[in-house]
């Protein structure tokens, strides 16, 4: 029987106690008791699939979340982390050492750039940046000794889409591991593993929780990569997800499919409504025909553009006027939330970048990123029209 992602998001990875509860239990404990000293010794030598040692290594509630999201994504295993950035750092740092070479797309979230530009290079890893949408640049940058490639399948905040299959083929030709940050594409619209990705990372803070409550992240891949490369690094460096946060993520996964579909439909309607606004220099949404990777979105994401769009007011002054005039949409820096959130990337999430770097990435002073929530679409459009009228 073939099970859909939506069904796996409700039933995957469940571990019931002796009470046979319907809702997953929160095992809020940091340690576990052994029947004897010999049992403790045996578990430390080799813990079974349903045996736990310490919450930094694993926990029943956290394991339920790992197994459920792995089932949704179609990977053999997963390791949950305290945040999305802990997942990005763990996926990269656990497999790399001095002298290794990484090729990465240039259009990344500011903290991802920090890990690649500052952290990895500090420890002797060579990093080459490319325009992620330009396959010729990938071909030129990937070398016989390249260890890994890294990119956001849809970039933050300008929504560039990278051809997962094409880049994966180039990387695999030299034996490199393909690591994809899939947050903007979401587990609902992206089948990155089927397209060739080896490792998927998510900030579970976004659509998985989806209600602004907790931080979390997850690394997904083969059992060998997760248990032999990722787990030893993360359990000793302490990026563990708390059981309570894991429980929140489990509850969030149950409704993620419904939320993401509704948010995506709303985002497309809002993008259509804004596309004709004479006061905006550009509106960015992958399913608009003006988007440079429109055709790739159709083939790679089934023609679904995700829950985020962006628009350019022309200047920082104009963008700030619009943001300050919003009545429903919140000003914050998260995304994938049930509440619509507007962000000014140039002064917040990407403020550490130089003006030259921002220009290369298309992060202009007037750019606003909009994460579409679950409010009535007409209300969001009306709020945005009122805000733009204030410019």
Rg calculated over all Cα atoms: 21 Å
Low-confidence stretches: none
CATH topology of the largest domain: Aspartate Aminotransferase, domain 2
Indicate the CATH class of the largest domain: Alpha Beta
According to DSSP, the number of beta strands is 12
Total helical segments: 15
Strand order of the largest sheet: 1-7-6-5-4-2-3
Any chance you could write out the topology, listing elements then pairs?
Blueprint (H helix, E strand, L loop, with lengths): L4 H7 L25 H9 L14 H14 L3 E5 L2 H10 L7 E5 L4 H13 L3 E5 L4 H7 L4 E7 L11 H9 L4 E5 L4 H4 L9 E5 L1 H5 L7 E5 L1 H15 L5 H33 L6 E3 L9 H7 L7 E5 L3 H10 L4 E2 L9 E3 L11 H7 L5 E5 L5 H13 L2
Parallel strand pairs: 2-3, 2-4, 4-5, 5-6, 10-11
Antiparallel strand pairs: 1-7, 6-7, 8-9, 9-12, 11-12
Brief rundown of the structure:
The protein is of the alpha/beta class.
What does this protein look like?
The protein is built from 15 helices and 12 strands. The strands form 2 sheets. The chain has a 7-stranded mixed β-sheet with strand order 1-7-6-5-4-2-3, sandwiched between helices. It has a 5-stranded mixed β-sheet with strand order 8-9-12-11-10. Strand 4, helix 7 and strand 5 form a beta-alpha-beta unit. It is globular. It has 2 domains: 247 residues, 3-Layer(aba) Sandwich (Aspartate Aminotransferase, domain 2), CATH 3.40.640.10; 134 residues, Aspartate Aminotransferase, domain 1. Helix 1 runs antiparallel to helix 11 and helix 3 packs parallel to helix 11. The model has no long low-confidence stretch (mean pLDDT 96). The chain is of the alpha/beta class.
């Amino acid at each position: 029987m073939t099970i859909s992602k939506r069904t796996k998001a409700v039933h995957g990875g469940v571990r019931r106690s002796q009470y046979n509860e319907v809702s997953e239990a929160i095992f809020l404990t940091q340690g576990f008791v052994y029947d004897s000293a010999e049992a403790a010794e045996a578990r430390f030598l080799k813990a079974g699939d349903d045996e736990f040692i310490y919450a930094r290594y694993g926990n029943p509630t956290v394991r339920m979340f790992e197994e459920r999201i792995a089932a949704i994504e179609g990977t053999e295993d997963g390791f949950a982390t305290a945040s999305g950035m802990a997942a990005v750092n763990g996926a990269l740092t656990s497999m790399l050492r001095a002298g290794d070479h990484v090729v990465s797309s240039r259009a990344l979230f500011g903290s991802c750039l920090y890990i690649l530009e500052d952290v990895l290079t500090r420890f002797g890893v060579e990093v080459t940046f490319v325009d992620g949408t330009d396959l010729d640049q990938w071909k030129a940058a990937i070398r016989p000794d390249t260890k890994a490639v890294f990119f956001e399948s849809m970039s933050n905040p300008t929504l560039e889409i990278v051809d997962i299959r094409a880049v994966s083929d180039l990387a695999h030709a030299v034996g490199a591991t393909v690591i994809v940050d899939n947050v903007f594409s979401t587990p609902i619209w992206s089948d990155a593993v089927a397209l060739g990705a080896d490792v998927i990372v998510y900030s579970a803070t976004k659509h998985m929780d989806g209600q602004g409550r907790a931080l979390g992240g997850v690394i997904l891949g083969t059992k060998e990569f997760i248990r032999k490369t990722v787990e030893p690094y993360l359990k000793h460096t302490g990026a563990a997800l708390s059981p309570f946060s894991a429980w929140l993520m489990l509850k969030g996964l149950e409704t993620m499919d419904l939320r993401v579909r509704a948010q995506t439909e709303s985002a497309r309607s809002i993008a259509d409504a804004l596309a004709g606004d004479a006061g905006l220099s550009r509106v960015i949404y992958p399913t608009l025909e003006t988007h440079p990777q429109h055709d790739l979105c159709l083939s790679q994401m089934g023609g679904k553009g995700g829950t985020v769009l962006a628009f350019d007011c022309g200047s920082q002054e104009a963008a700030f006027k619009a943001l300050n005039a919003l009545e429903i949409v919140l000003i914050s820096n998260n995304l994938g939330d049930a509440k619509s959130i507007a962000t000014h990337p140039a002064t917040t999430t990407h403020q550490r970048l130089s003006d030259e770097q921002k220009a290369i990435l298309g992060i202009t002073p007037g750019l606003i990123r909009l994460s579409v929530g679950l409010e009535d679409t007409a209300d969001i459009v009306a709020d945005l029209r009122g805000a733009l009228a204030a410019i």
